[in-house]
Amino acid sequence: MSRRYVNQLSHGDSVDEAFLVADKQLRANRQGNLYLQLELRDKTGSVGARLWNATEELARTFEPGDYLLVRGKTQIFQGSLQIILTHLDVLDPTRVEPEDFLPQSSQNVAKLFNRLRELLLAMHEPHLRALVECFLIDEEFVAKFTAAPAGIKNHHAYQGGLLEHVVNILNVADRILEFYPEVDRDLLLTGVFLHDIGKIEELSYERSFAYTDEGQLVGHLVMGVEMLRDKVERTADLTGEPFPPELLLRLKHMIVSHHGALEYGSPKLPMTLEAVALHYLDNLDAKIHTFGREIRDDPVRESTWTPFQQSLGRRLFKGTTARDTPEGTDEA
């Protein structure tokens, strides 16, 4: 019997299905009664779920990354779909197909990686080309880079999402750089490739998406600079000379400043042409992806607006819906 995925659920559906636990919180309502607030996931997305009258003993039987067989019914609550659970069982992970539960890029990862190589290896600056070659011949790095998400819940939060995000930005940069001849093409493309490399170690993404201990304590900006410095030391084997200090400085600056503002986690504001270009290209791709997802995945199909999106600080306009009879007209 085929399973029902999250993107196939709608208001009022009965649910008897297996999901991966992405998040678990044991909470108390105003009367002090405990309930479980869960985020359940499969490869098509995630859905909130609540189990009333829960116990601490039940909550201790599973953790994020485990699989549950749940029963319940869906409802729309504050504009979002959720499942009100009546029962749950912890599943043996050997009884499930892992590929059913972690979201993956809808694009062909092999083609994305080939496009990445095509753009990066066409660069002319010898030290930058040697640097990207050092990354691309590192099989462990490539395996992680092509599997990692770009985030846990925000943009490109699926396996292969980091690669897809980087290739999107590279493609945009490739198309617009002719209008900005003062921007160093090879430097910008290298910075695009490197800006989020720390995420391959900041995040864990084998069974569920979460932060590693180092990711929580250090973060991908610092981790990315460390990875860059490690590879820079190896470029001399390809070029026969040391990596230019200013070139390294500019790359490090692009990594640490690409969030664009101190309040968004950048220890420095962009202070070079390539750094400011990277910031806006990165933000463009992330925002377009996030807006598109919120509009596409809104479960309330009849509304022309999404619910208020806390992370975006606004509702999003989806457009008018088709109606049998235009408003203000009488049927014949």
From TrEMBL:
Start and end residues of each HD/PDEase domain: 158-296
Top-level taxon: Bacteria
Alphabetic keyword roster: Hydrolase
CDD domains: HDc, YhaM_OBF_like
UniProt name for this protein: HD domain-containing protein
Organism listed in the record: Paludisphaera mucosa
